[in-house]
Amino acid sequence: MSLHNLDAFFGAQHVALIGASPRAGSVGRAFAENLLAEPGGRRLSFVNPNHSDVLGHPCVPALNALHAVPDLAIIATPPESVPGLIAEAKLAGVRSAVVVSGCSGGDRGALRRAMRAAAKGSDLRILGPESQGLWAAASGLNATLAVAPPQPGTLGLIAQSGAIMNAVLDWGNAVKVGFSKAISLGDASDVDLDDLLDHLAYDVRTRAILVCVETIGDPRRFYSAARAAAKVKPVVILKSGRHRKPERKLATHSALLATEDAAYDAAIQRAGLLRVHDLDGLFDAAEALVRLKRPSETGKRLAIVTNDGGIGILAADRLLDHGGTLAGLGDEALASIQPFAPLHWSGTMPLDLDTALPLEHHDTVIEALIDDPQNDAVLVAYSPNRLSGGVEQAKRLADLIARKTKDRSRPKPVLVSWLERDPDALAAFDEGNVARFRTPGDAVRGFLDISRYASAQRELSETPPALPQDLASADVARVRSICDGAIEQDRTWLNPTEVADVLATYGIAHAAPIRAADAEAARQAADTLLGAHRAVAVKIDSPDLPHKSDVGGVVLDLAHPEHVAAATDGLFERVKARTPNTRIEGVTVQPMIDTSGGLELILGLADDPVFGPVIVFGRGGVAVEAIGDTTLDLPPLDMRLAHQMIERTRVARLLKGHRGHSPLDEDAVADGLVRLSQLSADVPQLRRLDLNPVLVTASGIMVLDARMQVERGAVGDATFDTNPRFTIRPYPRNWERRLGLKDGSQVFVRPVRAEDEPAFRDFFAKTDREDLRLRFFSYVRDFSHKFIARLTQIDYARDMAFGAFDGSGELIGVVRLHADPEREAGEYAILLRSDLKGQGLGWLLMKLVIEYGQAERFKRIEGQVLAENTTMLSMCQALGFSLKRDHNEPEIVECKLVLDGFDAGSLSRET
């Protein structure tokens, strides 16, 4: 993940086209024509040993024949020549290269590897291979194969496929939607999706980002960059390849349910991106995001007004089918509309106006709907005819929308579906920057897109409840030892006793079985259990049979010990006859739990080849795949995310009670998902897990059957001591500390969590106004939820914040470290509660953040301090920071600590 030298692509003042050609239909000619058509004041050089000029422009035989070093080299030559040309570009000092060439057939990774090897040790950044170039509006650079020059605007576009990039740019030209930057990513040997997401997130000319990809590279870097971008601007993603089949045999229900696309969907949703499934959806989302103001505040209530009832009903059907809500009407709006509404109108949506109604009355109705607070957006779906105003009505409507949205602090989104292809009418909407759509259904889809985006933004900043407290004391070492023991014995499945031990350690209730080697031992186990339970089940105990019922390996409802003994002998005979090579270690005898009044669920853990561990939830039982009511999410989970996961399933409605049935304990289900998530974070050896069925009743959950698969080679995250395969870096419990202050008191220091928002609010209330100014460089008037959420919701893959808590649990100090995208430098900031200065807390927190920076292999830690903050500057000097005044802003001092070779352990408060 690096922004290094990306500016050389978009702001290149000297471009060299290697492989420029006069031959009609060649890639070299197509690039040359586009570059010559829009020179943008930059220097342009053509390189080809076979030509002295191309299209009237001089051409040199080699890169080293140029008198000046290009900022950007575009390589459009045969694949076998590319590594050598990359090496030449490296020696010449070229900062960026676009490789158009691709490898057809064979080892498609060979060209990528050869290019990386050729560029190694240099600052040269490479886009491609198989890239079709890029467009940058600010510099006027059209280094693409687009047929027509793209229109400048505020959309950023990243596409793996050059053809899709060109199609999107062509659509933009047709509807007058412009782009700030467009990039064909290609096969991503160097510059990757996460680099470009970071770049466009920081780009002030880009208002929203469109992404079209088939695959992603590094999932942790993608998620981190995507989440950071989604927090500052809308990101729409079209991910193709939704129906790929797994290439490996799957042994658990959870693995079968965790399809590749379901995992992508979970990651995309968790990052706060808006996913669409086709180009039409991408265009509709782009239209809505570009034309509509403040999309992050849109709800689900849509008012629909039309001049034809059939059109309105189609729009309403589409809205309700996809989770939207037909808006009601406020009293004031109803009074304004009633005189112009149909005679027998019920006052509900959609509102069907008479085509022959004078245009000014249409305006009155639409204006009343825009002003009505009972809706979140208005859809005007019109089918013009000879009785309506046609172009005149389109112009009036465009003017009305522009007037109503221009001077409002919270402009209402207004969408138009104009079912007429008259170019003058459509031009009126485009010139007025009105969000127009081909059909009412497309308009509804655009509305739901911005509604989903707004919902995702709210979810990104919601404060979750605290995690279950007992999870902090779970005996992680014991569970890791159990898994390691099985691995050392060359077992991939934990036995039932080990499974029960793991679940008990993490506080998950389980109808634990008793293992029995033969019929007599099974009879004795049944004798023990039947004293407390009406019946028991007997199941074959074999590491080779993950699905016991498939081979007749389960007998239920046995109410007498002798029946259990007989059933055990029968199981041995039946399973041996059906699978003679199966290893049989005995049976398990398990109490039968009364399931009446409850529901059977599945809670599981699967291992996705891209995103690593994923959590599975849904309706359980033996027919779980046939029922198909499941959802996925990425760990780690908190209680808020667990409840959201439950709400995405149909079974959620049953949990809330139905047809005389009492509500079931949904909180217990969410708690179980959180515990499962923590288990996966703590124990990387545990790769796959099925809790199925899990019985949920009004009083809690009980696991009725469980299977756990382990795997060698999963080691913990070196810095966090957690699962290294998590896409989302989990809470680093190993960075918790108890530190002593000068007065002998102890403070508890730990990484900040999202649920710390109330503690931060109290902390700011007890901190002096001047201290807050020194920290934030200005007076902060309002510590809003949105403001505090930015401080508490930490992406541990990028940032760290440590909070110090006193004996009563109050927050008394915070230090944070924000990493740059390259993770070479971290910018620190620190704030202590004003009444606790002089106790050495600031020193301890700074020392801790230095240790963390070293553990994360940062090269340096930097910070800006106001020159008047002499206390902080003195401490920085004592810690070994170098201090330097900012010449442009002399009131600011730049503090820098180089970490290479620095010994944080040698620091003491007496230094």
List keywords for this structure.
911 residues, alpha/beta, eight-stranded mixed beta sheet, seven-stranded mixed beta sheet, 35% helix, globular
Short description:
This protein is α/β, with parallel strands linked by helices and 911 residues long. The protein is built from 29 helices and 38 strands.
Write a structural description.
With 911 residues, the chain is of the alpha/beta class. Helix content is 35%, strand content 22%. It contains 29 helices and 38 strands. The strands form 6 sheets. It has an 8-stranded mixed beta sheet, sandwiched between helices. A hairpin with a 4-residue loop joins β8 and β9 (141-144). α7 (219-230) packs parallel to α9 (260-271) and α13 packs parallel to α14. The protein is globular and about 95 Å long. The relative contact order is 0.06. The mean pLDDT is 90.
Biggest sheet strand order reads 31-32-33-34-35-36-38-37
- Assign the structural class, choosing from mainly alpha, mainly beta, alpha/beta, alpha+beta, or little secondary structure: alpha/beta
Roughly what percent helix?
Answer: 25-40%
User: What low-confidence regions span 5 or more consecutive residues with pLDDT below 50?
Assistant: none
Morphology:
globular
**What is the strand tally?**
38
Radius of gyration: 32 Å
Question: Beta-strand level of the residues, as a percent range?
Answer: 15-25%
N-to-C terminal Cα separation, in Å? 37 Å
The average pLDDT is 90
Subunit arrangement of the protein: single chain
Number of helices: 29
The main β sheet shows up as: 8 strands, mixed
